[in-house]
Amino acid sequence: MIIGKVIGTFSAKKDDSGLPRPKVDSLKLIEGFGIEEDKFAGKDLEKTVMIVGQYSYNISSKEGINIQAGSLGENILFDFNPHDYSVGTKFKIGEAVIQITENCTICNHLAVFGKKLPEIVKDCRGIYCTIINNGVIKKDDSVELI
Question: What does each C-alpha distance from 10 to 18, 28, 38, 39, 65 come to in angstroms?
Fold first, then answer.
């Protein structure tokens, strides 16, 4: 069942620092490794992909904090709220399959965008996923719940 689509992809290379994460045309997900060329690849395999929903940016904007996509540290930005799904949920995007492993903890470094931002997004900052199946993900790809 298709539940939404990808509205942006982001990846930080080894020499990139800070936020927002740079926008990229696509992400190559590699099971047991992470996102090809991403600075966090090969580290914590339970947290190799971070997903965020547009909802998080919308509530920030309602509170007067307008930030660009990638500012919450996501790799994939969805047009739906992934926080509506629980740990263990799997999403298929193209050939890639990712599985929710845990909610992202709030990071105080988000305060660089606005003092209140960490508190505003504490319940919807993002979700970590592991890679179940290799694949390439790009903007406008459909997201299927499996």
Answer: 13, 11, 9, 12, 20
